Amino acid sequence: MTRVLTALVSSVMSSDNPSDEAKTRGAVDVSTDILGTAERSSLQETLAQKENDLILAAELGKALLEKNEELRRQNEDMAEGYAERLEVGSISLSACYSLP
User: Fold this and answer.
1) Burial of 16 (0-12, 13-18, 19+ CB in 10 A)
2) pLDDT per residue as tens digits for the range 4-37
């Protein structure tokens, strides 16, 4: 099986910089020659699942980045509000203590 995979990888990688789609087609064509139909089908299913997993991971990563940005903005707003309240409070206190 290792020789089959090595042959598959070397045949796909030996072409002159084809697109990813062409690489996949080349891999499937070579797998048809080397592997049986059931193994080819399993390989295609595994490849499709890996692609779906990659897309899902990218979508989740994007959602996490967006949520992180939203939380960062909320944190900054809260910090600014707290600082303003402290400033107003200290002005009020200083006014109370500066009475003649």
Assistant:
1) exposed
2) 555 555 555 555 555 666 555 655 565 556 667 8
Alpha-carbon dihedral sign for residues 15, 18, 24, 26: negative
User: Which residues have CB under 8 Å from 44's CB, separation 6+?
Assistant: 28
Helices 37-97 and 20-34, interaxial angle, to 10°?
Answer: 140
How many residues are recorded in the chain?
100
Contact 13, 39 (CB under 8 A): no
Distance CA 99, CA 8 (A): 88
The per-residue pLDDT for 90 is: 75
- pTM of this prediction? 0.49
pLDDT of residue 69: 97
The alpha helices in the chain, defined as continuous H runs, are 2-13, 20-34, 37-97
- DSSP letter (8 states) at residue 16: S
